[in-house]
Amino acid sequence: MAKDRPRPSNTKPPTTTQIPDSADDLASHFICKVDKIRASTASSADQRPTRSHPTENGLSSFQLVTTEDEDAHRLIRQAPCKHCDLDPAPTWLIKRTTGMLASVVAAICNASLQSGVFPDSQKRAVIRARLKKPCLSPDDLNSYRPISNLTFLSKMVERVAARFYEPCRRKRSSADQTVNLPEVSFH
């Protein structure tokens, strides 16, 4: 019987667990954790390096996302087929209608980066708690990691920003070794 067969060692354990605490308990725990981190790093804010040169590449000088050279189409097609409960349509449907939606996605990405404003409607996420490791106790709130599930559109803006940010980070890092911008990785 399939039930009696041992699970192969190369398969991942189940990702969902019955959490004995309420969503409010988890939210309070993570808020408290963030507050503690902020308090412990507050004094380092005064020790940030100052930039000895003006910013050469501002948000006004990034390369626009275009639909003419298939840039927006490629951005949508290469997106993972994941979706968020907050998305108005599943990602597979957005990918199938790329021809109709590419110009809208490009306009939103460009407007957000040119204005320096990320739309409030995209500053929302579905947060799920996952056990950090299967061997940890599900009864201990410290055993959990919050996982943010972002909307498709917010991930598109994030990818465009990362595409602009990374060359700027490399250029600044090589031009002035005293200013180290953080590594950014967007999946």
Written account of the structure:
The chain is mainly alpha-helical and 187 residues long. It has a domain at 58-122 and 151-174. It contains five helices and two strands, in the order ααααββα. It has a two-stranded antiparallel sheet. Helix 2 (71-77) crosses helix 4 (98-115). The two termini are 39 Å apart. The model is unreliable at 1-8, 13-17 and 51-58 (pLDDT under 50).
Which sequence of SSEs, written as H and E, runs from N to C?
Answer: HHHHEEH
The rounded distance between the terminal residues' Cα atoms is: 39 Å
Count of helical regions: 5
| Main structural class | mainly alpha
Rg, Å, rounded: 21 Å
Keyword list:
about 40% helix; disordered N terminus; single chain; 2 strands; mainly alpha; two-stranded antiparallel ribbon; about 5% strand; about 190 residues
Provide a concise account of the structure shown.
The chain has five helices and two strands; from the N terminus they run H-H-H-H-E-E-H. With 187 residues, the chain is mainly α.
List the helices and strands and how they pair.
Blueprint: H1 23-41, H2 71-77, H3 91-96, H4 98-115, E1 125-131, E2 144-150, H5 152-175
Antiparallel strand pairs: 1-2
